[in-house]
Design goal:
Largest sheet: 4 strands, mixed
Strand order of the largest sheet: 3-4-6-5
Strand content: under 5%
Protein name: Glycosyltransferase RgtA/B/C/D-like domain-containing protein
Helix content: 55-70%
Number of domains: 3
InterPro entries: LipidA_mod_glycosyltrf_83, RgtA/B/C-like
Subcellular location: Cell membrane
Structural class: mainly alpha
Shape: globular
Keywords: Cell membrane, Glycosyltransferase, Membrane, Transferase, Transmembrane, Transmembrane helix
Oligomer: single chain
Distance between the termini: 83 Å
Main location: membrane
Number of strands: 6
């Protein structure tokens, strides 16, 4: 029995809600990005200033305010919590699955829409990131929607054989401009750069044999600018050009330099996509090659998605800073191509390749072993500590975390699903294989976020976060020595400083302080802070907690 479109929309919404919303607040936010962004949103509320972004109550020009508007709104609804910080991306997850379903259904049919939603929601990192508090999920969605509306404009303008394009050309241009403006408001002008690069590569690939109206191009830019004006123009008119100038300088530095912790090897993003977008990454491989097309728009949309993949991966390979989520926009084309492979196999318009099953087994087996290994290592982690050279890591391993060993069932579940899914692929039951593989991965991520991640977090940062939380409401300063953490701001619920000297580490360590100062450092760096005025309170899991009292009057 075929389900109605409205029923399928409701079903996708319910499934996505179940996948993405539970356990959002079950683990502390992670340094740096999650806590950094949550703190920006908290300070928006504290300062009652929603037009400028701050961190530690100082202007933070690295990001535009769109995502922080979402987070601060969620914090007003649910309180300043981990749940509130991650809630906007859970909503983005629901919206993204509905978008790819609707786009897939409009371009091909309902089956394709379901497969694309299944591939996106059932791949490793795409699923995980909807449980996070970082900016990229919304940024990626806005860019994709802008590009999609431009593709519809191009099809109608150039007479493609796609039915249903009943709206006037300016309709698609306006929506493309709106979503581009939102994308730039979310993370910056790199959104427009990607859009123009993808369009430019497509234009060159087609030997400039496409037509567009320059008036429509101007309309696109005007609409984008009007959306941007809700912040860019307002900030410039009311406060001058300083903040916007610093923001643009930072965007340039981001492309030309890297931080010490953000350098990676040349093929970094391809490995990240191969592993992080599993199993879609493997299923997508056959679709990169030429195939049988049953319409002009069929071939063209696939061409757009392949170009989008290469533009994103090449661009962020050139960029000096290499971070996992920089190439996350490529999840749209990767999951599309995975759905495309399955769809074509099901219609007998493409031949299933045996290497797909082999690669699924190899990479899936490695991922399963890693998940299973986490549980096994957890049981024996203290026995392994003497063999670890890193002093801080060794101390991390002393954390009191209870492992039952049964947590490895998550990895076993993936192994079972791989065996069943690969077998169904060999039997030609391609849609059932897709439901098995993607459904299992979605369940694995769901269980891992509830069972494994909270335990792993206890080794890395929980000791310092607990210390910060204990300082809430206390009239004191809290400062990290030898390392950077945004947790010291968010989890102490830091108020706006009244003494400008409190930003000065030297003053906190040796100056005439006016209230107690708590310091947090790491065991491998404590030798740099052996000062008589610092009293050690305790040490835990690699962190050392110190206190300095105000000098006697």
């Amino acid at each position: 029995m075929r389900l109605k479109n409205s029923t399928l929309i409701l079903l996708i919404t319910v499934v996505a809600t179940v996948l993405f919303i539970p356990f959002l607040g079950s683990v502390h936010l992670f340094d740096w990005d999650e806590i950094n962004f949550a703190e920006c949103s908290r300070e928006m509320i504290k300062l009652h200033d929603y037009t400028r972004v701050y961190i530690d109550y100082l202007p933070f020009w690295e990001k535009p305010p769109m995502f922080f508007w979402m987070q601060s709104t969620a914090m007003k609804w649910f309180g300043v919590t981990e749940f509130a910080a991650r809630f906007p991306n859970a909503i983005c997850g629901i919206a993204t699955l509905l978008v790819v379903y609707a786009v897939g259904r409009r371009i091909y049919d309902t089956r394709f829409g379901i497969l694309w939603a299944l591939a996106y929601g059932g791949s490793l990192f795409p699923n995980m990131y909807f449980k996070s508090g970082i900016i990229d999920p919304w940024f990626n969605l806005f860019i994709f929607l802008s590009l999609y509306n431009f593709i519809l404009y191009h099809w109608k303008k150039n007479g493609f054989d796609k039915e249903g394009l009943t709206k006037p050309l300016y309709y698609y241009v306006i929506w493309s401009g709106v979503f581009m403006g939102l994308a730039i408001l979310t993370k910056g002008q790199v959104a427009l750069m990607i859009f123009l690069l993808v369009s430019g590569v497509y234009l060159i690939y087609n030997r400039f044999k496409i037509y567009f109206n320059w008036g429509h191009a101007l309309l696109f830019l005007v609409i984008s600018f009007l959306v941007l004006s809700t912040w860019y123009a307002y900030e410039t008119i009311t406060r001058g050009t300083w903040f916007i100038t610093e923001f643009l300088k930072y965007q340039y530095r981001l492309f030309t330099t890297h931080d010490a912790d953000q350098a990676g090897f040349f093929g970094y993003h391809y490995i990240v996509l191969l592993v992080g977008c599993f199993p879609a990454s493997i299923l997508a491989i056959p679709a990169f090659f030429k195939g049988k097309y049953n319409s002009r728009f069929d071939k063209d949309f696939k061409k757009w998605m392949v170009i989008l993949f290469w533009v994103v991966t090449v661009l962020f390979t050139i960029v000096q800073s290499r971070i996992i989520h920089y190439s996350s926009l490529a999840w749209f084309p990767v999951t599309f191509l995975a759905a495309y492979s399955i769809y074509k196999w099901e219609l007998n318009e493409a031949v299933y390749k045996k290497y797909v099953g082999v690669l699924l087994g190899i990479l899936g087996g490695i991922i399963s072993l890693l998940i299973l290994g986490v549980a096994i290592i957890g049981l024996k982690v203290r026995l392994l500590a003497p063999y670890v050279d890193d002093v801080f890591a060794k101390a991390n391993m002393e954390a009191d975390v209870h492992w039952g060993g049964w947590e490895g069932i998550v990895g076993v579940l993936l192994v079972v699903a791989l065996i069943i899914g690969i077998r169904k692929l060999k039997q030609g039951q391609f849609v059932r294989a897709a439901f098995t593989l993607f459904g299992a991965m979605a369940i694995v991520v769901f269980l891992a976020s509830a069972i494994i991640v909270p335990k792993v977090e206890k080794y890395s940062q929980a000791a310092s976060i607990d210390f910060f939380i204990a300082r809430q409401g206390e009239d004191c300063y809290v400062h990290c020595l030898g390392f950077k953490s945004y947790g010291v701001l968010f989890y102490t619920r830091k108020e706006k400083p009244t003494n400008p000297d409190s930003y000065n580490e030297e003053w906190l360590l040796k100056g005439n302080i006016d209230k107690p100062v708590y310091f947090v450092t790491k065991v491998d760096r404590e030798q740099n802070y052996k000062l008589p005025q610092l009293r050690e309170l305790y040490r835990k899991n690699g962190f050392v907690f110190l206190k300095r009292e105000p000098p006697a009057q």
